[in-house]
Amino acid sequence: MSFLDMFNQDLVTSVIRALIPILLAALGGMIAERAGIFNIGLEGMILIGAFCAVTASFFTHSWLLGVIAAMLAGALFALILGYGAVYRKGDPIVLAIAMNILALGMTSFLLVAIFDVQGVFQDPGIVGIPVWRIPVLADIPYLGALFSLTPLGYLALLLVPTLWIVLFRTPLGLRLRGVGERPLAAATLGVKPERYQLGAVLASGALAGLGGAQLALGNVVLFTENMSSGRGWIAVVAVMLARAHPVGVLGAAVLFGFADALGFRLQILGLPPQLTDAAPYVVTLIVLIFTSRRFRKPREAALA
């Protein structure tokens, strides 16, 4: 297979599968960012969501209950950040880093405690999320991949315009953005900033948990230690790159999803997996460099 031969229908399908968990987590991070809480704990929230999705699916034999468990677990885990940063005025960066470490250790411990395995848990009892294929539309070349997704895949794509409408065309979105930009001014208008910030952080955790469910039950049907593998950090970069705008978050998720999918397919050409697995993170570093330059110029101009 040549390099050009890789750009086919299968690559488009792989890109969409890779971007859905990132997009869900990034949309959650965007909501928290709009409320004034910079959530870098998405990595741990994805991991907690993936573990709880697999655990619930295994014991209940229901993918739907697995998805619900992932969403609730992500929101509950995010409560640590919400309470600590909003009500106790702790540093959200320090809290989120601690949460990421906690999630890694806790899921590894529970994997042994509950399933008596280390590293990977894969069992026929785990029920994966089905693919809902829309007839006719799914047969369209290339674009058909958008109409052959899991329910969480459709939800992630629908959330982009929905959140845009909520943020920029509703009173709720106006209050949320006001709390994030001018919390004291919002408080003088009768808005309670703490409630909006806590709600935004919980929504962020719930969406990151759904990203974990998609990763563990949609893309594959298993759980491995450190399964998030940096996707939460990539979602954080997507929020930064998009300046917390839903459409921009989608574009960034597509970029990182493409890098992730292309990295796997480059292994077919004989490139070492250690090199191809680094593709999404190389793109992340490049994006961070250009993003930091873009953010630095306005500040330098203001100081001049």
From TrEMBL:
UniProt-listed Pfam families: BPD_transp_2 (PF02653)
Location within or outside the cell: Cell membrane
Segments crossing the lipid bilayer: 12-31, 38-59, 65-86, 93-115, 142-167, 233-258, 278-295
Keywords of this entry: Cell membrane, Membrane, Sugar transport, Transmembrane, Transmembrane helix, Transport
Superkingdom field: Bacteria
Membrane protein topology class: Multi-pass membrane protein
Gene Ontology molecular function terms on file: transmembrane transporter activity
Protein name: Simple sugar transport system permease protein
Organism: Leucobacter exalbidus
Cellular compartments per GO CC: plasma membrane
